């Protein structure tokens, strides 16, 4: 069961997330890689999990879910000079993925979760700004591959 946790308040917009996304871990002392928001393309590594909204989450979200990449190593993001909503963030461990069905099918994603398959994901980062955003930072992805397949793929010129 998930509990509501206030993550961030900007003006009148509040963010809530299931408690499992707010848990601390032992990587808090690791030096985070610093990334940039959209338009930069970033590559992240981690394992996928599906976060389902239950009765105690926001009623409008009941029955829906979100795909979240749990990063191998935390990252930080520089504040965007182009978009004031893209605020600086540190120690980011979870990134919600915005996935087009042309890039990855639900069944494939579910298999990655079940097998705890390490993934390499690339795309553009943006800051969470609605109740549907369960993490502070999200990524609109343009590629998603198992880490082993990404290692075997030939480098692009």
What does this structure look like?
The chain is mainly beta and 157 residues long. It has a single domain (6-20, 31-152), classed as Beta Barrel (OB fold (Dihydrolipoamide Acetyltransferase, E2P)), CATH 2.40.50. The chain contains two helices and eight strands, in the order E-E-E-E-E-E-H-E-E-H. The protein has a five-stranded mixed β-barrel with strand order 4-5-6-8-7. A hairpin with a 2-residue loop joins strand 1 (6-10) and strand 2 (13-16). Residues 120-143 form the DUF4431 domain.
Quick structural summary:
This protein is mainly beta.
Q: Please identify the structural class as seen in this structure.
A: mainly beta
Give the helix level as a range of percent.
Answer: 10-25%
CATH architecture: Beta Barrel
State the name of the first-level CATH class. Answer: Mainly Beta
Number of domains: 1
Amount of beta strand: 35-45%
Organism: Luteolibacter ambystomatis
InterPro entries: DUF4431 (IPR027826)
Keywords: Signal
Protein name: DUF4431 domain-containing protein
Which helices and strands, and how do they pair?
Layout: E1 6-10, E2 13-16, E3 33-35, E4 41-52, E5 65-77, E6 89-98, H1 106-115, E7 118-127, E8 137-146, H2 147-152
Parallel strand pairs: 3-5, 6-8
Antiparallel strand pairs: 1-2, 4-5, 4-7, 5-6, 7-8
